[in-house]
Design a protein that fits this description.
Lipocalin, 2 helices, elongated
Length: 186
């Protein structure tokens, strides 16, 4: 075994033990060495995203009950950097995931359409998924009053009135929050 490699290994072991004794939880050192490159110590920090931290996401495409059904996944994007102690833990533009929780087409007798999305997660800078909660539900305009009036005046035509459509447009903002504390390697 090469003498340099043994020395570097012992140095890193001593550094790790010293770090543990000093209580530097949340910081670590990673050994990145090429074939003949020697050893390089690359510091990394672990940030803690606290439960309740706000994460603003937006829809990528238009979401309607005609195109989506309950259970369909919806692609979302993080709107602004999320920082912990000045360090970015979730980048603006990072992917996020949601799911359709309500998808009712407009119905007869003035019943409006309804569409809803629940936000599930966003991708942190280290690639881990941060669990989120938040939702958006949109309901079309109700035409029930018109249906009732028509039912009184012209009974056969009352069922022809439909409710308004429901659309969550592309780039629509959804406020979400982190569900539980999560560690992210920065």
């Amino acid at each position: 075994m090469n003498f340099k490699k043994i020395l570097v290994g012992k140095f890193l072991t001593g550094l790790a033990l010293t770090g543990m004794m000093l209580g530097t939880i949340g910081q670590s050192a990673t050994l990145a060495a090429g074939n003949n490159a020697g050893a390089v110590i690359v510091p990394s920090i672990i940030g803690m995203i606290r439960a309740g931290t706000s994460v603003v996401v937006r829809t990528v495409t238009k979401v309607t009950p005609k195109e989506y059904q309950v259970g369909d996944k919806v692609r979302l994007v993080v709107v602004a950097d999320v920082k912990v102690d000045g360090e970015v833990v979730i980048n603006a533009g990072a992917g996020a995931l949601g799911e359709v929780i309500v998808a009712n087409n407009r119905g007869m007798a003035g019943i409006p359409a309804k569409i809803g999305i629940k936000v599930y997660s966003a991708t942190a800078v280290d690639g881990s998924e941060i669990l989120l909660t938040g939702n958006k539900v949109v309901e079309g305009k109700s035409n029930t009053a018109n249906t009732v009036v028509c039912a009184v005046l012209c009974t056969p035509f009352a069922l022809l009135f439909s409710g308004g459509s429901a659309v969550i447009p592309a780039n629509d903002i959804i406020e979400a929050t982190v569900i539980s504390n999560a560690r992210v390697r920065i």
